[in-house]
Design goal:
The chain is α+β, with helices and mostly antiparallel strands. The protein has two domains: about 210 residues, Hypothetical protein, domain 2 (Endonuclease III, domain 1, Orthogonal Bundle); about 130 residues, Nucleoside Triphosphate Pyrophosphohydrolase (Alpha-Beta Complex), CATH 3.90.79. It has 16 helices and eight strands. The strands form two sheets. Strands 1, 4, 5, 6 and 8 form a five-stranded mixed beta sheet that branches. The protein has a three-stranded antiparallel beta sheet with strand order 3-2-7. Strand 5 and strand 6 form a beta hairpin. Helix 9 packs across helix 10 and helix 9 crosses helix 12. The longest helix has 17 residues. The radius of gyration is 25 Å and the shape is elongated. The relative contact order is 0.11.
């Protein structure tokens, strides 16, 4: 039976190009699996430019996997603020504890995949780059390169059933097997700098002569992507109480779910319809305060939905924080809050002449503090 996957271009041609043109990245050339793993986790859904300084800062605070494992979750969460997807930080912390407990990283894909939060791509990337395993991790760059090289016109995500096995076949070539870490990083660089999503620089591509899409003139249209599902839209209303010292009352979110375990400004649950101040008052963190609804809306875009939030503020007496809450100085609060919630603080700068006022009462039959 003939092979359904056409011959792939020469790995040694790509490696020769990589040796001349490789990008200079903070984690490039690292052999420590901890640093390689950290860079891969940070790069998920985040740009190289944004990750560079955060990678260095994170390593300065947690220089080894043992240091990360020993750190309190609150310290890890604070250092992750602004990088999004806090579930990744929770998994990073949990996996570090598992690695420390076993005395080091497993050096196989299967062993790496057994760690919390490490999926197929990350396991393959660490196995190839840190441990020289002959495997090809398939990210968006590799998907794009392979789909164009082979002119795969099936739409994603279904096309991954073809792209994955095709990419794995690169390791049949001795040049790739001899330098698996360099080869997969060369694929990443090719997709990031030459075989870009728009207007690929085919004229200077080391694989131009072997690219079926370029030969057919369809490279700009590949890979084909299935239509995206409609994004959700949610609305929230949050209550910022400040004591006589100017401290802000914050609350910890539940450990699971969006922004799990992070601090927030207490508020009503996010829902599909906008809140009025009167509707949301049962979710205020302290009863009896004169709440002022600030003008303006804080907007934040998650991958799967858009979020619009209103902010009400009130002066609070000097009193202990309710259960699940904590008083924090403004600078510390800004540093600890995730980006989505921190965007509410910009509304404090808006003039309050047109603000709406309401007084909260302790709701009957329920605690005054509720988790959103």
């Amino acid at each position: 039976m003939p092979d359904p996957i056409p011959a792939l271009p020469a790995a040694d041609a790509l490696l020769a190009w990589y040796d001349r043109h490789r990008r200079t990245l903070p984690w490039r050339g690292e052999g420590d699996p901890y640093r390689i793993w950290l860079s891969e986790v940070m790069l998920q859904q985040t740009t190289v430019a944004a990750v560079g300084p955060r990678y260095a800062r994170f390593l300065a605070r947690f220089p080894t996997v043992d240091a990360l494992a020993a750190a309190p979750w609150e310290d890890v969460a604070a250092e992750w603020a602004g990088l999004g997807y806090y579930a990744r930080a929770r998994n990073l912390h949990a996996a570090a504890k598992a690695v420390a407990a076993r005395g080091g990283f497993p050096n196989t894909e299967d062993g790496l995949r057994a760690l919390p939060g490490i999926g197929a791509y990350t396991a393959a990337a660490v196995a190839a780059i840190a441990f020289g395993r002959p495997t090809v991790p398939v990210d968006g760059n590799v998907e794009r390169v392979v789909s164009r090289i082979l002119a795969i016109r099936d739409p994603l995500p279904g096309a991954r059933k073809i792209i994955g096995p095709a990419a794995a076949r690169f390791m049949d070539q001795p040049a790739a097997r001899d330098r698996p870490g360099d080869f997969v990083q060369a694929l990443f660089d090719l997709g990031a700098t030459i075989c870009t999503p728009r207007r690929p620089a085919c004229a200077i591509c080391p694989w131009r002569g072997a690219c079926a899409a370029q030969r057919l003139g369809i490279q700009d249209g590949l890979p084909v992507k299935a239509p995206k599902a409609a994004r959700g839209h949610r609305h929230g209303l949050h209550f910022l109480a400040r004591d006589p010292a100017g401290r802000m009352l914050l609350r910890q979110r539940p450990p699971e779910g969006l922004l799990g375990g992070m601090l927030e400004i207490p508020g009503a649950p996010w829902r599909e319809t906008p809140w009025t101040l009167e509707e949301a008052l049962p979710h205020a963190p302290l009863p009896g305060l004169d709440w002022v609804l600030r003008p303006g809306i804080a907007h934040h875009g998650f991958t799967h939905m858009d979020l619009d939030m209103l902010l009400a503020t009130a002066d609070a007496p000097d009193a202990p924080a309710p259960e699940g809450c904590t008083w924090m100085a403004p600078d510390a609060a800004r540093a600890a809050l995730p980006t989505a919630i921190r965007s509410l603080l910009a509304l404090l700068e808006e003039p309050a002449e047109t603000a709406t006022k309401a007084k909260s009462r302790a709701p009957r039959g329920r605690a005054a503090t509720l988790r959103s």
